[in-house]
Amino acid sequence: GVFRSRVFDFWDHRCAVTGSRIGRAIRASHIKPWRNSTNEERLDRANGLPLTASLDALFDEGLITFEDSGE
């Protein structure tokens, strides 16, 4: 949808961690969870990271995190 397109365009259609360009394997993950976001934040590309499916699952479970610096 709209959020995915915005995130993918912002990140040059690459996973933020691996650099993979395999679109079918990359998910647009919300940084601030959907349930805690305003309608504006839900579609804001700055609230998203393109991550491969395995990294997205780890991120959603809080098993990996990212600093504001990207580390």
Question: Could you please describe the fold and organization of this structure?
Answer:
With 71 residues, the chain is of the alpha+beta class. The chain is 31% helix and 14% strand. It has helices spanning 2-10, 39-43, 53-60; strands at 26-30, 48-52. A two-stranded antiparallel sheet has the order 1-2.
Which structural class best describes the helix and strand composition? alpha+beta
**Uncertain stretches:** none
Global shape: globular
Q: Gap between N and C termini, in Å?
A: 28 Å
Short descriptors:
71 residues, alpha+beta, two-stranded antiparallel sheet, 3 helices
How would you summarize this macromolecular structure in one to three sentences?
The protein is α+β, with helices and mostly antiparallel strands and 71 residues long.
Topology:
Layout lengths: L1 H9 L15 E5 L8 H5 L4 E5 H8 L11
Antiparallel strand pairs: 1-2
